[in-house]
């Protein structure tokens, strides 16, 4: 059989802990191309990979003499594994995603592949929430296209990657204040905004912060894609930080939560002006009364 690297065979050997060397030596003696070890309680599994230039049965025949003296070793399973381009495949993820009427969210290595006329928001998909692929983020972006005015000062509460601040600044906001409880998220946000999107440092104030506690600015537009509970907790403080004529967009609410949230708007000096539903998620745009 010819050399074929489109797939490999694997044979998983299981033995009691302590026999790792025996398992590895059997694997190496039979010409495997690699192996991975996992421990499961008192047992150890060695998954051994072989080239597909001969049938799996041939590899098994070669392995058996090495296993025969070891009754406690068993063959747990075997099969075929596709040899995908592991090192580059992940980069295919996060292809350009059109959001709303004007925006496209994408990983930086897809630059240039977006639909012409769309404004690209580059996000490096790291550990922070906010790649743009979640409906709750898309709901805010869609409402922001309708309710952001050029020159607005914006608060982005629960900023994650700072995707909402980036979009706001790229759509003409003058300044954004991004806050998140998680300090690691804040570091990632700096890389996303300043480096990838070419946003001037002075336009963006990113800091660790818990909702609106200690927030001393007033803004034209507040953005908050956080869950129902933090949104509710923050609601009494929202009108205070909004300038006259100010607006807020709340997201991270499933539809039933959105209905409960709406009931609390008037008593907090706000009124509903717009709404977007994406699957089970809803985004609400409100104005200061
Ligand atoms: C659903 S993510 C939204 C990320 C991004 N803004 C987006 O729209 O895709 C919510 C973010 O809120 C942050 N968060 C949760 N509770 C918070 C709080 N009390 N104060 C500030 N940020 C909070 C989380 O760390 C997380 O990054």
TrEMBL record:
- Record's catalysed reaction(s): L-lysyl-[protein] + 3 S-adenosyl-L-methionine = N(6),N(6),N(6)-trimethyl-L-lysyl-[protein] + 3 S-adenosyl-L-homocysteine + 3 H(+)
Which GO terms of type biological process are on file? methylation
Q: Give yes or no: UniProt keyword Cytoplasm.
A: yes
Provide the alphabetized UniProt keywords.
Cytoplasm, Methyltransferase, Ribonucleoprotein, Ribosomal protein, S-adenosyl-L-methionine, Transferase
Main localisation: cytoplasm
EC nos = 2.1.1.-
Provide one Gene Ontology cellular component.
cytoplasm
**HAMAP family according to UniProt:** Methyltr_PrmA
The task this protein performs is described as:
Methylates ribosomal protein L11.
Q: What family does the entry list?
A: Belongs to the methyltransferase superfamily. PrmA family.
Name listed for the protein in its UniProt record = Ribosomal protein L11 methyltransferase
Q: Which species? A: Pyramidobacter porci
Its taxonomic path starts at: Bacteria, Thermotogati, Synergistota, Synergistia, Synergistales
